[in-house]
Amino acid sequence: MSAAMDTESTYSGYSHYSGHSKKAHRQGRDRHKSPRSKDGSRSEKSVTIQTPPAEPLLGNDSSRAEEGQDDNWGETTTAITGTSEHSISQEDIARISKDLEDSVGLDCKRYLGLTVAAVLGLLVFLTPIAFILLPQILWRDDLEPCGTVCEGLFISVAFKLLILLIGTWALFFRQPKADLPRVFVFRALLLVLIFLFVFSYWLFYGVRILDSKDTNYQGIVQYAVSLVDALLFIHYLAIVLLELRQLQPMFTVKVVRSTDGESRYYSLGHLSIQRAALVVLENYYRDFTVYNPALLTASKSRAAKHMAGLKVYNVDGPGNNASGQSRAMIAAAARRRDSSHNELYYEEADHERRVKKRRARLVVAVEEAFTHIKRLQTEEQQKAPGEMMDPREAAQAIFPSMARALQKYLRTTRQQQYHSMESILQHLSFCITNNMTPKAFLERYLNPGPTLQYDRDRWFSKQWTLVSEEAVTSGLQDGVVFVLKCLDFSLVVNVKKIPFIKLSEEFIDPKSHKFVLRLQSETSV
Questions:
Q1: Which residues sit opposite 497 in a β-bridge?
Q2: Basic and acidic residues composition bias: which ranges (predicted)?
Q3: For 431, which of 35, 79, 119, 441 could close a Cys bridge (C-beta 3.0–4.6 Å)?
């Protein structure tokens, strides 16, 4: 309980200091604002996006504060800055607003496509029925009797239409997974083919049957049956083009994240570039570890520190050649570069030591917390009704004993922005409900997981832009490179064709496995 009270006092200090720092920052900005900005000029203005205050458990931590921390910083430090390190200019804001407008256009295009497909599908299913009913309505008395043959054809048409309806629903009417920049070529071709096919049937029906008022009703019904059969064959063609054609692997794509270089390999079939990009993104959310920009700030600050400008003084006067100064600066930079690897080595070693130490503390704290929980059996629940707790109450009871160790570990590994106190309590309650071990509970926090593991509002990549030199509707080819960009990073995709493999066969007779023992004077045999 004392640890929980210390934690609450720490975060109350953090919230007070963050509000005071933001107020002072706003006053300083207003005091030093230039007269040009008052006149409405926006050429040099930029906007800094501030992250909202975090949950009481996990506060944001800057990378510069992490460099000078000791092992006991959690007990002494009560305030950290809450300003985000990400800033964007007004050009970026204009680009984001344009992307939002484009997304509205994509929604309109998607609903328009669905509307056209629904209207065409309704026309397809009503056409055979109309072919059969129109003669009965317009010239019923002049029709020749059909009898049992027509009744059998009616049953055939009914069941074929039912099969076609189920197949169309399973193939076409599915929840869309993404908004693609261009139309799906094969699906558009199928819609055009179906429209031309139905239109030609209606044209023939109007000229040869409606105008002449054909009295052969059995031939009219068979005409409708032939239409349904042709629609079933078009549905088979759609299955081949939309589903089966892409199953055989033909290409291998390498996906590299531009910020940290993490890469994966995937095998794809005959797909267009935009559909290949969609498959890459689906696998990215599942296979790649979540993008953490906080892990990159340390390397950036270290590089900026080593590449700081060097002052060179010219003691001989300004008349000397500048080549001597440039040579001196290059030599000094080379000497600093030779010593920078030592600093990098000791920084990484110290960080690994801190991570291992806090990891050990976290494991011990969680194991001790889990020892206080015992699942009651059915007969035990009747003996002590007053001491029973549900999983949520049990999680809230044992959480304070592990909160500080978990907080320190997440801050050290820079994962605090992905885990709120509510999400940790929900995960702890889930583990308690399913009788999971402490190791299973810690798996989410000890190893960064894929993007799908975290809440959607914690993702840094929700809207993507496809950049390609080739048309996005063209198929994949050997050597094609396209880029998937989001706000903070990009995925570079390189396509390679799977080589043709020539496999030969060689037969070995089992009776040919004969051996001879060679004895020498030096051997012990």
A1: 251
A2: 36-45
A3: 441
